Amino acid sequence: MCIIRILVTIGIVVSFSTQATAQTTAPTRAAVDERVWVVLNHIKYDKKEQFDDVLSNEVMTAAKEYRDPDDEKHALNLQVSKGLRVLRPAVMNEDSTWTFIFIFDPYIEGANYTIGRPLRQKYGEDGAEEVFGRWSECFNSGQELYMVNQTDL
């Protein structure tokens, strides 16, 4: 009887901790009529690997480690990071460019969506300029920005 109680208790604890973990790690998505921000990044034919490397190893690292001095803004930034999706191109575009897509779902008003502050905080002013220069030289054209509303479709 004691063993059964212990096993039931362990099962309940594991169940609650699994649910808590799932709730804290599950991405937040926009509700119907809430805003979502979609950013298309058109990358030069020969810069795909460089862009992916700078994005993965420098920009995203700085963004994840960024600590806004304002606690409220920092909380908003953490929400943004939970809802960010980055899509890598599976095929080249007809014009020989590559399109990386960032989806901020949901869009959080008041949060930081620029890479400048995180880069400066992590790498200093000169380092941030160097990273931003390598990032910028990858673009075939500027970013395309789309603010859209979530539907129930």
**Unreliable segments of 5+ consecutive residues:** 1-23
The average pLDDT score comes to 87
Main sheet: which strands, in order across?
A: 2-3-1-4
Number of helices: 4
What is the number of beta strands? 4
Question: How would the global form be characterised?
Answer: flat
* C-alpha-based Rg, rounded: 20 Å
N-to-C terminal Cα separation, in Å? Answer: 52 Å
Report on the biggest sheet.
4 strands, antiparallel
- Structural class assignment: alpha+beta
- Oligomeric nature of the chains: single chain
Helix fraction by DSSP (H/I, runs of at least 4): 40-55%
Estimate the strand proportion.
15-25%
The sequence of SSEs as H and E is HEHHEEHE
Give your account of this protein's structure:
There is one protein chain. The protein is of the alpha+beta class and about 150 residues long. It contains four helices and four strands. Strands 2-3-1-4 form a four-stranded antiparallel beta sheet. It is flat, with a radius of gyration of 20 Å.
Topology readout:
Blueprint: H1 2-25, E1 35-43, H2 48-65, H3 71-83, E2 84-87, E3 98-104, H4 116-136, E4 144-149
Antiparallel strand pairs: 1-3, 1-4, 2-3
Helix pairs in contact: 2-4
Question: What's a concise summary of this model?
Answer:
With 153 residues, the chain is an alpha+beta fold. The protein is built from four helices and four strands; from the N terminus they run H-E-H-H-E-E-H-E.
